[in-house]
Amino acid sequence: MVRPEDNWINSATLFIIDDDPEHLFFIKNKLAPLGYKIVTFSDPKLALDNIRKESEGLIVVDYVLPDTNGLEFIEKLHAKGVNLPFVVVTGFGDEELAVKALKMGATDYIVKNRDYISILPAKITEALEKYTFTKRINNAEIALRESEEKFRKLICSSKEGIALI
């Protein structure tokens, strides 16, 4: 069920980090017509400077980047307090790398083959839906803890007996 607060998925900001301008061009042309706001970076250092803790959206990061790799890039973002969902794309299908990416929190790992651009929109939608669902659950848990604490304070501070029916 799509809720009104989930509508941002269709207009979310996608941060695309890939040092190959041709891939950036193809990804942008595939995703922009779907309503996403696309922000591309061919330089991971520039991306690190511009993606902030307050940023909302999703990161699509190539594994092979100049002077770093996609997972190191994500670790640097995490160190800045940026915890956006991310998808790793790579030209090298490696099971060990895929497992490492998923353990770090990647919502998906996509091998750049001839068809990867066509499946990318569905993978991005899945990642944003999962992120939204997880965020909603976390917010509900916080609200529940706060409500329990208020109830506990009410009971503890009451001088009269309280009967629950």
Descriptive notes:
This protein is an alpha/beta fold and 165 residues long. It has helices at residues 21-31, 44-50, 70-79, 95-103, 116-157, and strands spanning 13-17, 37-41, 58-62, 64-65, 68-69, 86-90, 108-111. The chain has a five-stranded parallel β-sheet, with helices on both faces. Strands 4-5 form a two-stranded antiparallel sheet. The model has no long low-confidence stretch (mean pLDDT 87).
Please name the defining characteristics of this protein.
165 residues; alpha/beta; 5-stranded parallel β-sheet; two-stranded antiparallel sheet; 5 helices; elongated
- The ordered H/E elements are EHEHEEEHEHEH
Task: Note the overall shape.
Answer: elongated
Strand order of the largest sheet: 2-1-3-6-7
Span of the ends, CA to CA: 34 Å
Instruction: Note the total helix count.
Output: 5
Beta strands, count: 7
Q: Largest sheet at a glance?
A: 5 strands, parallel
Strand content: 15-25%
Structural class determined from secondary elements: alpha/beta
Unreliable spans: none
Tell me, rounded to a whole number, the average pLDDT. 87
Question: Rg, please?
Answer: 20 Å
Estimate percent helicity: 40-55%
Helices, strands, pairings?
Layout: E1 13-17, H1 21-31, E2 37-41, H2 44-50, E3 58-62, E4 64-65, E5 68-69, H3 70-79, E6 86-90, H4 95-103, E7 108-111, H5 116-157
Parallel strand pairs: 1-2, 1-3, 3-6, 6-7
Antiparallel strand pairs: 4-5
In short:
This protein is α/β, with parallel strands linked by helices and 165 residues long. It has five helices and seven strands.
